[in-house]
Amino acid sequence: MLDLHVTDGIAWxxxxxxxxxxxxNDEMAKxxxxxxxxxxxRTDVRVVVTRGEGRAFCAGSDLRELAPLSAEEAAEYELRxxxxxxxxxxxxxxxxxMLHGHVLGGGLGLALYHDFRIASATACLGMPEVELxxxxxxxxxxxxxxxxxxxxxxxxxxxxSITGAQAAALGLVNExxxxxxxxxxxxxxxxxxxxMPAEGxxxxxxxLNRMSPLRQFEWDLVASEAFRDCYSKPEAQKRxxxxxxxxxxx
Length: 250
Hints:
Layout: E1 2-7, E2 10-15, H1 26-40, E3 47-52, H2 63-66, H3 71-86, E4 95-99, E5 102-104, H4 106-112, E6 116-120, E7 124-126, H5 129-132, H6 140-147, H7 149-158, E8 162-163, H8 164-170, E9 175-177, H9 182-194, H10 198-210, H11 218-231, H12 234-248
Parallel strand pairs: 2-3, 3-4, 4-6, 5-7, 6-9
Antiparallel strand pairs: 1-2, 7-8
Helix pairs in contact: 1-3, 3-11, 6-7
């Protein structure tokens, strides 16, 4: 479900639920937390790359696991994800999200917790939560920090999906490259970072994170409360039931 492979100082974390486009469930999130805790103390790891197996980076939270939960339970469930993925900030190593295929909802949220994002030009990025009846339960502050409030408002409230190339133009990702070149470009960047003095990188990352008020966990708490309120409404309950029914009938 979450493979870890280290080579030449680069840790490759691979989301491995390809049958469901690497949708994040509770088990995967717990494994992610364990991997981050392991990597935090590994001196042989200089850079961390997260990628997805199969046709997608990550299509978001696993709604089939979310659907049976009450609003309180669902908010707690999603807040655990925020707690786990925000722990990437604690890593002294630079982190890179390698994005291809679907990068939606919580998948894009996960990418936003990384220091850098490199996408294939044809990747599909977006946050469709409002169409389901709720707010993204975490990473909203990160999105606003990275692209600005006007663009964040557009992406969140219109549920517009964009390509990797469009995401690069907006600053949502650092670079977009042809999909055939994605792995090579990420590896090139990772090797460049791995060759730099580790302490200089770690201190720069730590300082920038401290200087970024929209990265503070309080905004994930606020988003979680708003998600809970939305999730309890009949329209949201109907839309998630319809979504799960469509998936189960495929």
